[in-house]
Amino acid sequence: MQRLEEIWITVSVGILIVFMIIVGYQTFALGMGPPSHKEVIDPQKVDTTAPFNNPGIKEIGDNEFEVVMTLQAFGFTPNSIELPVGAEVHFTMTSKDVTHGFQIPGTNINAMVMPGHIQKISHTFTKPGEYLVICNEYCGIGHQAMSTTITVK
Ligand code: CUA
């Protein structure tokens, strides 16, 4: 094997090892890996399955809330949510029909909400204001009208 070949093979393997170390560090030390727990639900029985049989906002701690939400063509239930500023909010969501999206522009909330799966995402709203929530997965003829607001004050 030529000297240059050896150098390039060493560099390539070295880069791979460095990438694996970085990804491993992010996944295990920083907890940035994809969620491994999968929670499923029968999409035909969302209305009768807890907690989705009673969607809404619940205070679960000191300025900590759980928002249980269903997404369906073409809306969000509950609609028009109001939360106090600084609240830590845990969204628990599922879809009753097709795949929808849950995106709040200006935040890092961007989730896919699929029938048969329970999607959980947490966020702390530190600034007051009216936050637009949009569906960013094409879900049918009313997709572009599927939106709601979260008012933080
Ligand atoms: Cu729901 Cu697009």
UniProtKB/TrEMBL annotation:
Protein's recorded name: Cytochrome aa3 subunit 2
Keyword field contains Transmembrane: yes
Catalytic activity: 4 Fe(II)-[cytochrome c] + O2 + 8 H(+)(in) = 4 Fe(III)-[cytochrome c] + 2 H2O + 4 H(+)(out)
PROSITE patterns registered for this protein in UniProt: COX2, COX2_CUA
Keywords linked to the UniProt accession: Copper, Membrane, Metal-binding, Transmembrane, Transmembrane helix
Sequence intervals crossing the membrane: 7-28
Major location (coarse): other
Subcellular locations according to the entry: Cell envelope
InterPro entries, A to Z: Ba3_CcO_II_C, CcO_II-like_C, Copper_CuA, Cupredoxin, NosZ/Cyto_c_oxidase_sub2
Top-level taxon of origin: Bacteria
Function: Subunits I and II form the functional core of the enzyme complex. Electrons originating in cytochrome c are transferred via heme a and Cu(A) to the binuclear center formed by heme a3 and Cu(B).
Organism: Aquibacillus rhizosphaerae
Domain annotation Cytochrome oxidase subunit II copper A binding: ranges: 62-153
